[in-house]
Amino acid sequence: MQDNVRFPAEWEPQAAILIAWPNADTDWAERLAGVEETYIALVAAITRFQRVVICVADDDVETYAEMRLRSNRVDMDRVRFVTVPYDDTWLRDSGPITLIESGLRDGDDFRLLDFRFTGWGGKFDASDDDQLVQRLTDSQVFSTQARDTIDFALEGGAIDTDGDGTLLTTWQCLHERHPDASREELTGKLAGWLHQDRVLWLDHGALEGDDTDAHIDTLARFAARDAIVFQACDDPADSHYADLKAMADEIAALRTKQGQPYRLFPLPWAKPVLDVAADGSERRLAASYANFLIVNGAVLMPAYGDEADDVAAAVLADAFPHREIVQVPCRPLIWQNGSLHCITMQLPEGLV
Prior knowledge:
The chain has 352 residues and is α/β, with parallel strands linked by helices. It has one domain (14-348): 5-stranded Propeller (L-arginine/glycine Amidinotransferase, Chain A). 25% of the residues lie in helices and 26% in strands. It has helices at 32-46, 59-71, 91-94, 119-122, 132-138, 171-177, 183-194, 241-253, 308-319; strands at 14-20, 51-56, 79-83, 97-100, 110-116, 147-153, 159-161, 166-170, 198-202, 220-224, 227-231, 263-267, 273-276, 282-285, 293-295, 298-303, 324-329, 345-348. Strand 13 (273-276) and strand 14 form a beta hairpin.
C-alpha cells in the first residue's frame, strides 16, 4: 500500500458533481416530468456552490436539458454537458471512485477506480453503465487518464470514508455481491484497493423499497472523522424499528482510531411513503434522510414533503455547523428506490 495514496472524504474540496440527465429511454420514463423537476432543483442547488457535469444520451437530450435549466435561471457557466451512453442515472454506483495520489492539495494526481457495476447483483441491465467510467475518461472529462479496472463488483453507495483511512460499509450488501468471500477476505480487498487502515462493518439496517441490499449511504454516513449521521426510527410500531434500533446500537459501539466513541446524529423518521400500483397493490418506498449530498459549503438533503424534513435539516445543521443546509425535493426519486446521493458522484478538486 502506498502511503501517499488516499481516498478522500466527501466533505473535502470538490471540482464538480457528476450526474446523468433522465430521459424517456431510462426507467424514469413513466414519471419523467416529476423526476425532471427534481433534477432541475438539484442542478440549481449545486451550481450555487460549484460546477456540475451532466451526462446526456444524445444531442436532443442535451438541447432539452439546457432549455429546461436556462428557463429555471440556472447558472449555465457552471454546467458542462458530456454525451455518453448510460442505462440509468444512478451515478453513485456506476461513476468513478477517485483516489488522490499525492496527498497534497497543490499538484494532486488522481486515480480512477473502475469497479464492475452489475446492476446491483444482476437485478437490472447495466451493460452501458458498467462502461461509463471508461467512456468518460476517453471523452477527456477528467484531468487524468489513470484508470484502474478492477474485476470486483462494488458500488459507490456501498461505502463511505472519513478520508483518514476508515471505511464504513454493510455486511448485507457486500455479502450479497460476493457470497463466497469471508468478511476477512472482503476487508482485505476493500482496505487494499481503497487504501484504508480499517473497515467498520454494520450487520443491521435495511430499508423497505431499497433494492441495493442495504447500501450504507441510505443508513449511516461520516460527518467528520469523529462523527456519524444515521437514519433512526422512533416508531415502535414501524416494521423498521427493531433493525434500525440494532443498527443504532452497533454504531454507538464503534470507536474512532483514537478509541473514542463517535459523536452521533440520529436523523428523524419520515411517515411511510407508499406507491400504489394500477392494480391497487402498495409498496413502501425508502425515504431516507441519510442519502444527503455534501458539496462545497453546503449539504444538499432530500426532502419528501414530510414534517420531518425540517427536523432532518436541523440535525444536519448540527452535524455540519459550517455548511448551509439546502432541501431538494426528492419524493419522485424514491419511486425508483433511490434518492439524492444515489444519483450523484462528487469529483475532487482538480479532477475536472
